[in-house]
Amino acid sequence: MMSLDSDIEAQVEVHRTAIEDLSKKYELDVHTHLHDIALQLRVQNYRRPVARLLPELLAEIFYQYVVTVWNAEEPNACFKLSHVCHYWRAVILQLPTLWRFMTFPMAQLVPTMLARSQRLPIEMKVARMDASKDLPKFTAALKDNSYRICDLEMRLTLRRIRKLHKPHTRFCHTSATSSPHSERPSRL
Question: Quick check: 164 and 131 in contact, CB under 8 A?
Fold first, then answer.
């Protein structure tokens, strides 16, 4: 009986090893095929007319787009452009001027944008921020780079401004609207 159990265990171990080897081989095959597909897609992208534009021209187009959508408060235009194709990503990663336009509350993106904007001055818009819970995230994200802010636009409702604690209210001039849809600012 003992020899039968050990024979079965030995066969199970042989089959387990064979299955593991096949699994590794198939994983490698899948990875190789996915890599080949990615290369073919890249070659197809290079054949498109937009891929033949000079990087300088693309840089100007990207700059105009990023500034336009940033003014419309689209928080991650650079990230969207950098995910279109390999060529666009290579171009946009070489343009620190595009990464200097930031929108908060996209706090998780701020460290990446700060790094990609290198040491350039940054312009930031803060909208829809809950002062009591988002202010710590905001200050943490900019802790070592606050000196780089050359333009800061904050849109907070009066209710949210009142939630600010005294140490955070060092404003030279503060105005707020009584509701998010009101157009006439009220002086605080």
Answer: yes
Phi, psi (deg, nearest 5) at residue 173 = -140, 125
> Read out DSSP for 77-109?
HHHHHHTT-HHHHHHHHT-GGGGGEEEET-TTT
H or E segment at 123?
strand 122-127
Are residue 103 and residue 64 in the same domain, yes or no? Answer: yes
What CA–CA distances, in Å, run from 118 to 99, 122, 177?
9, 10, 35
Confirm whether 34 is domain-assigned.
Answer: no
155: which strand partners?
Answer: 127
pLDDT by position in tens, the chain (length 188): 567 778 888 888 899 999 999 999 999 989 888 888 888 877 777 777 877 889 999 999 999 998 888 776 676 788 888 988 888 999 999 999 988 888 776 667 778 888 899 989 988 887 666 656 667 777 777 778 888 888 888 776 666 555 554 444 444 344 444 444 444 443 33
Q: Which domain holds residue 185?
A: 156-188
Confirm whether 144 is domain-assigned: yes
In a domain, 44, yes or no: no
Number of folded domains in the chain?
Answer: 2
Q: Is residue 150 part of a domain?
A: yes
The Cα-based distances of 160 to 25, 62, 178, 181 in angstroms read 58, 34, 10, 15
